[in-house]
Write a structure and sequence with these properties.
Elements lengths: L9 E7 L6 E7 L2 H6 L20 H10 L8 E4 L6 H9 L2 E6 L4 H11 L7 E3 L10 E7 L7 H12 E11 L5 H11 L1 E11 L2 E11 L2
Length: 217
Amino acid sequence: MTSRRQFGSEKRQVLRLPGRLGTLRLERPGSAESLLNAMDDSHPEAEYLIPYWADCWPSAEGLLRYLLRIPCPRGSSLEIGAGLGISGMGALRRGWNLQISDFHPESLPWLKHNLTSNGHAAQRVLRLDWRETPPRRWKNILASDVLYERVFAPQIADFLDAALEEDGRALIAEPGRPIAEEGIALFATRFKLRLRPSRSRVEGRWWPIRVLEIRKS
């Protein structure tokens, strides 16, 4: 695992939360090009190691906004594909009992740094691959913008089936990508599915984000 310093200067961002929830301080790599240039294209997992995690995606903010307006749930929770940890940090600020995970090894130092910079323990971060059998079950599972490849939907459906408690719930934020429609249709055949509205502010404009609420029963 490399350090955060390997890829040059950081970009810093402050997200202001509503009410008395304060702000979130966020750091991410300053050079996406350096991340891409450092990739080993011959790696058998190269398709999965493209550093999408290093961007602040609108769906992460959309999920964050949704989490801030629903009651804080009981039970253990997990975020998959967390990237920089925007949604998860908002959930932690609300009092969620949450572990935050990503598959990409380069994202983990940034996740840990962002968590500790906002007063949360780095031990909440773990590396997790949704293609593998989960180590346990959780009451709640979070994700944002994880349906951008057609192959991901059945993988995530299998993971949710194995990782969610029987009365559990998953919340997946999705920005309206056409490629995600097949996955959403698949979720509807395997789970109870509702679409909830949210939004994200991009370059001064509000963009709609839909949150998939998925339940096993």
